[in-house]
Recover the amino acids of this structure.
């Protein structure tokens, strides 16, 4: 029986700063504010790239008034705290879990790896890494989109005080963002559960290749949309290396479901939030508590919140106002002063 694999499972990575991608050539110029010409409720599908149609839920085109409100909110902020989630990366071709119709929960019966299962079962780890190995070349090649690039520019202009992302795809780093906390870790790094050593995911890919020289050719290959097909039988023959130094179990440096975020990281983010004077949520429904807690803290400290996300969020009642639209479409046309 074939197993369909999805990019979410490729939670693996290499040291972010070691990537050799060229960001400068990718940088988009500021686009003129011309979004108000499309009728509300309709999507200008002819101008929406295929990747967006595949992974981004349909949304109304934002009107000029809402855009001006958001622009005014951001212009008032002098130390903006930004929280981003999967909705920011869907426009780079990485599917999320929860989006209606296009998220993995809606399209498939796939569910993320649970921390306890990963620790308990060598078989689960073997299956996890076999998929991860196959999907890595494509997953690691995703590039930041106009939303990541806009936020990086705002940081350069001194607008963004700190950015917290729940994504593990390294796209903010690839965009050149500096003041950044990856709340759930990063799939480009690998952690040894024995000695705590952290190494680039790219290095592990080489070890996989060396241990499984003919394995890749036998697997089913990558479908056009990035899915990977592997027979159960093939997974059984996949060899997984352990830590070179201590022989410990290797795991992507990513917070799996059922695991908890490091306390010091949470404390650090709370401190950055306390230094901020406005919060922008971009591309997250905030369903997971690890991100939602910062919205509760912002409300306690009376820090104003704006939310940019397609669909409702857990923190809607805490927001001064909210915008339901694609992050790239909105952030790339706003120029906060
Ligand atoms: Zn080790």
């Amino acid at each position: 029986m074939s197993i369909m694999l999805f990019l979410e499972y490729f939670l693996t990575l290499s040291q972010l700063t070691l990537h050799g991608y060229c960001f400068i050539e990718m940088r988009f110029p500021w686009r003129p504010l011309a979004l108000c010409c499309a009728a509300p409720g309709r999507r200008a599908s002819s101008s929406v790239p295929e990747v967006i149609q595949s992974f981004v839920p349909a949304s109304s085109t934002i009107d000029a008034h809402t855009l001006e409100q958001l622009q005014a909110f951001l212009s008032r902020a002098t130390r903006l705290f930004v929280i981003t989630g999967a909705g920011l990366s869907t426009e780079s071709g990485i599917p999320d879990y929860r989006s209606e119709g296009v998220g993995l929960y809606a399209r498939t019966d796939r569910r993320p790896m649970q921390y306890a299962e990963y620790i308990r079962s060598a078989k689960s780890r073997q299956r996890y890494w076999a998929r991860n190995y196959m999907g890595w070349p494509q997953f690691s090649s995703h590039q930041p989109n106009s939303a990541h690039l806009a936020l990086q520019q705002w940081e350069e202009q001194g607008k963004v005080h700190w950015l917290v992302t729940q994504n593990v795809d390294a796209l903010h780093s690839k965009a050149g963002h500096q003041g950044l906390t990856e709340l759930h870790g990063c799939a480009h790094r690998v952690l040894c559960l024995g000695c705590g050593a952290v190494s680039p995911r790219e290095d592990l890919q080489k070890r996989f290749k060396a241990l499984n020289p003919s394995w890749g050719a036998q697997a089913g290959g990558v479908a056009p949309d990035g899915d990977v097909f592997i027979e159960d039988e093939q997974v059984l023959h996949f060899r997984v290396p352990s830590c070179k130094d201590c022989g410990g179990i290797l795991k992507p440096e990513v917070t799996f479901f059922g695991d908890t975020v490091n306390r010091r990281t949470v404390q650090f983010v709370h401190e950055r939030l306390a230094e901020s004077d406005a919060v922008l949520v971009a591309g997250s429904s905030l369903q997971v508590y690890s991100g939602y807690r910062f919205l509760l803290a912002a409300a306690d400290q009376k820090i104003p919140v704006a939310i940019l996300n397609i669909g409702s969020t857990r923190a809607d009642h805490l927001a001064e106002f909210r915008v339901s639209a694609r992050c790239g479409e909105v952030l790339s046309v706003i120029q906060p002063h």
